[in-house]
Each structure stands twice: as C-alpha cells, then as structure tokens.
C-alpha cells in the first residue's frame, strides 16, 4: 500500500517528502482554507515538491462548472488529479473528464455502492472516508474491505485511497483491507514513527558508545 499525505501545508509536505515515505498528496477545500493562501500558488508549490498524484478539489456542484474548474486545475501540472464529490452531477463530470484523459478522484465515498458507481463512471481513484464513518458508529474499514473485494473480483482498475485517517491503526487496517493507498495527515505520519522501545534502544546505544575508543 502506498502512502499519500493529506494536507495543503507546504512545510508538512516538504518534510514528509524528505522522509521518502509519501508519493502523492490529497487536499480538500477545508485543508486549503486552513492555509489562508492563494490556492493556485499552493498547488504549484506542491507539484514542485512531490512527483506523484496531487488531488485538487472542484467546488461547483453542477457538472459543467466542475469540468470548467477541472480544466483550470489540470493545466497547473500533469500530476494534478481532479477531486470530484460523489454526486450524480459529479459522476457526469467524471465521465467527461475520463474521456478527455483527465484523471479523477471521487471523494466523500461512504459506501461500496457509491464506489462501484464512481468506478463505472471512469474514476481513477475513489476515496472512502474511514474516520467520518467511524464517527457515526459505522465500521469505516469494512467499506474499504468491501470495495477492495469488489474491485478485485470484477477486475476494476480504479484505485482505492483510504481517507479520513485518524490514527496509525487506521493505516495498518487499510493496508490489511487491500487499499491501494492511504492518505495520511502529517500528525499521523509522525505518530507512525513512534515506539518507546526505539527511544530506549537509541538511548542505550549512545550510552554504551561512550565506552568505545573511537571518534567519527
Ligand atoms: C481525503 O481526501 C480528505 O481530504 C480527508 O481525508 C478528509 O479527512 P477528515 O475526515 O479528517 O476531514
């Protein structure tokens, strides 16, 4: 399973990219608003940092508007993926864009039925929101598992991006469920590094090294 970072913060993207662990970025209108910067400028900067799929979301709710916005976003860089909300109008836009060779990520997926529709309309990616399903007492990861089973069984090439990831166990469970990708917030990537035995181990190695007669 690949890892993307779920943020519009350029510093976080740079840091995670330097770790070598991410190969894509997802943004959404809320994440972009949090940065308080010019969206196109931010998108250009992100495309200059990560050499992989960068999702940027449209805000129109009618397919004509979505397609128009998609073309502006896609013109920024060949790696830009157009994030489209899971609506009947959204799928019309997905169909048009896929016929034009523009890649899409259908977002706000909360059921396997929605994912199947999006895939059949020509979506490159679908993004099931695990954390938001858990928030309303549904089993978010079961939706990821169901989508993975259906796509495998029916040879559907659309890739799954497990989204709305809240903690490291979500990432592990998404990998076990057969998700192709998990898009992970910076804080969760940091949490994935942590283990008390690693800290204790480093401390012990450094202490023991004090007795070694050698200087680098
Ligand atoms: C995915 O592409 C979305 O940007 C994101 O994962 C939503 O996460 P949230 O539920 O934490 O807002």
From TrEMBL:
Belongs to the transaldolase family. Type 3B subfamily. It is found in: Cytoplasm. The active site is at residue 83. Pfam families: TAL_FSA. CDD domains: Transaldolase_FSA. Its EC number is 2.2.1.2. It catalyses: D-sedoheptulose 7-phosphate + D-glyceraldehyde 3-phosphate = D-erythrose 4-phosphate + beta-D-fructose 6-phosphate. HAMAP family: Transaldolase_3b (MF_00494). This is Probable transaldolase. The keyword Ribonucleoprotein does not apply. GO terms for cellular component: cytoplasm. SUPFAM superfamilies: Aldolase. GO terms for biological process: carbohydrate metabolic process; pentose-phosphate shunt.
């Amino acid at each position: 399973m690949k890892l993307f970072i779920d943020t519009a913060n350029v510093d976080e993207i740079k840091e995670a990219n330097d770790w070598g662990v991410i190969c894509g970025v997802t943004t959404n209108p809320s994440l972009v608003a949090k940065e308080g910067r010019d969206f196109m400028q931010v998108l250009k900067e992100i495309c200059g940092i990560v050499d992989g799929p960068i999702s940027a979301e449209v805000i129109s709710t009618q397919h004509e508007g979505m397609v128009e916005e998609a073309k502006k976003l896609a013109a920024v860089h060949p790696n830009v993926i157009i994030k489209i909300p899971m609506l009947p109008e959204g799928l019309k836009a997905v169909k048009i864009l896929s016929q034009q060779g523009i890649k899409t990520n259908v977002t706000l997926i909360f059921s396997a039925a929605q994912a199947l529709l999006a895939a059949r309309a020509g979506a490159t990616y679908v993004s099931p929101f695990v954390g938001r399903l858990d928030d309303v007492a549904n089993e978010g990861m079961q939706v990821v598992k169901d989508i993975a089973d259906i796509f495998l069984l029916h040879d559907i090439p659309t890739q799954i991006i497990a989204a709305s990831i809240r903690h490291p166990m979500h990432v592990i469970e998404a990998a076990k469920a057969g998700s192709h990708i998990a898009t992970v917030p910076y804080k969760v990537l940091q949490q994935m590094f942590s283990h008390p035995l690693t800290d204790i181990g480093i401390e012990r190695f450094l202490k023991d090294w004090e007795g070694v007669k050698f200087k680098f």
